[in-house]
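Ticket #4471: structure export looks truncated?
Reporter: QA, pipeline team
Priority: medium

Steps to reproduce: submit the single chain below to the structure queue and open the exported record.
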Amino acid sequence: MEGKKFIFNLLSVFTLLVLTVSLVSALGISPAKKIVDFEDGLNFESEFKVVNTLDRFTKVSIGVEGELSKYVVLEKGNILSLEANKETIVKYSLNIPKTLSKNDISQGNNDIYFTAREIVDLKENLIGTSVGLISLLRVKVPHDTKYISSDFYIYEGDVGSNTIFVIPVENLGVENLSKVSVALNIHDGQNTIDELKSKSISIVTGERKEIRLVWSTEVNPGEYFVNVILEYDSKINEFEDKFIVEGRKMSINDLIVGEVLGDAVKFEVTVKNIWNEELNNVYAEISVYDLNNLLISSFVTSKESISKRKEGKFTGHIDVGDLEEGEYITKLRVHYGNKDIEQNIETTFYENKFVVEGVKQGYEDKFTSNLSWILLSILIILIMINLVWMHWFKRRD
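Actual output as written to the record:
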């Protein structure tokens, strides 16, 4: 008897999970987020969509949560009737009394959540227990002093590629920030491996900017730590995170630059998958910048898969029609998955020749080089034949 009861309970839980998954996939809600700035007596009207992808009629309950939810009014109430494969617009208004100041509520990002849950019993309007879909209204309430909100994202790189650190910074204070910078200390738990520092930027009140730092991952595989120091107008936020460096997977074996033909110059990049598995979504990106880091021209190749231990070639053209003679920087990036390898190469453009330092110049040069070796080999063979011929005649005499 106990065994049958256990099996019944197990099947019930399984059925509930299946229904939950099917519900989440059957309903959709958009947009995911909207943002509005707080002001005294704020009146804000907006809407979101609820989509029913089921082949049947259903009802949905709309819930409103958050500190400011009591000031939200749904235009048509909180029960929606959704026809099969149709979408419904939910209109709402946020009306904050003029007597409510920003000091009376939580400052920073004060969020209101709209949740959509299916009604499983249409007669009794019984709401299901599944996870509800959410649309967010973010009310940005400024702090009285200088204040920032920040996140930290690490895009891990393999040995020989790049690890990218991204720090979104949002000014939630009432004052503009004139000097915002990030310093990174990368270490292995004991010793400092490297240090990075961003340029100082300004962020006006209510504005959000991203600071991006790229680290060339020339270390052994393993676990590493990064200490982050975020400084804004002499104030400091400090925290630490960790990341993993895996073994090298991709190498750039060759870069050939062709002659300028018309207004374009051809590039051919050869890469090799040195990993023991196929690498997908591999593509190359070449960009030409002036010495002030202003983008002049670029191209991105199509994506390919490269089998293990095999090479792949990518070609493209850079437009040099408006390029003035002088010095430039060519940035070569090879992307694979969510990782990339990057090389910065000194470049000159003179007399209609695009010269990238340290790489092969032109397909014709390669042919000429091969032709020289062929002629030299023929010459050596002729000399050897001539010596044998002379030796044979001497013996005959």
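Status: closed, not a bug. The export was complete when the record was re-opened. Leaving a note from the reviewer for reference: The first strand starts at residue 27 and ends at 30.
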